[in-house]
Structure formats: C-alpha cells, structure tokens
Amino acid sequence: MMVPLLFLYGIWYAALRVLRPVFFLGVREYIRQYSLIYQIFSWLKKLWNTFRYEVAHVDFSEKSTKTIWKIVLINFAVLSLCSMMWFFRHRRADRVLHLCVLFYQKNIMTGSAEIIRRCCAV
C-alpha cells in the first residue's frame, strides 16, 4: 500500500518540478528559453534566409558562375539518365544499355574502353 503512494507522490513531485517554470514564465517564454527545437529553429531560419539571398543574387555574367552552371547541367543530365535507367529497369533494351554503361565505366578505369565501345555499338 505504501509503494504505490510513494510512486504517485514521486510522479506528482517530478511533474511540478518540471512544470514550475511554465507557471512563472508563461508558456511562450518557457518554450523560447527551454526548448531546444525553438533554438535550432532560429538558427535554421537564419541559415535558410542566407541561402535564399545567395540564390536570389547569383550573377550569371561571371565566368566562374558559367562554369558552375555547366557542371550543374551536366550533373542533371547524368542523374536524369540514371533515374531513367532505374525507372525503366524492367525493359530489355534498358538492361542492355545499362550493362553497356556499366562495362564502359568499369573499363575506363582499366583502360580498355575501346573493346566495350565496339561491343555496345548500336
């Protein structure tokens, strides 16, 4: 009989101890001071605003920016090709194309890409 009462008292004490600042500060100020998510959110908001400013003020007339733009477009083309290969993976023509690309990539590393070019020529 005594153990459940002590357990209940412990829960009651812990709840009051944790919620005490809410009564003195108010809910809004409590969340502002004690919430880790609120503190991270303000940091993320500042980071997001900086990112938006950088994206909105890109000058495409500079040579280095044009180079970056070309790299991004090439990356987009490669990712699009890989995505199409993944999406249409159940078709035979795509399987053959996929194997040719894999063999070509493997043999570029070894230096015998010419054999694969002749093998996969359409």
Give a verbal description of the structure.
This protein is mainly α. It is 85% helix and 0% strand. α1 (2-25) crosses α2 (27-34) and α5 runs antiparallel to α6 (113-119).
CA-atom Rg in angstroms: 30 Å
* Biggest sheet descriptor: none
Strand tally is 0
* Discrete helix count: 6
Give the overall shape, derived from the CA principal axes.
Answer: elongated
Termini gap: 85 Å
Low-confidence stretches: none
Mean pLDDT: 77
Strand content: under 5%
Classification by helices and strands? mainly alpha
What is the helix content?
A: over 70%
Query: What order do the SSEs take from the amino end to the carboxyl end, as H and E?
Result: HHHHHH
List the helices and strands and how they pair.
Layout: H1 2-25, H2 27-34, H3 36-56, H4 63-87, H5 92-110, H6 113-119
Which structural traits does this protein have?
122 residues, mainly alpha, 6 helices, elongated
Quick recap of the structure?
With 122 residues, this protein is an all-alpha fold.
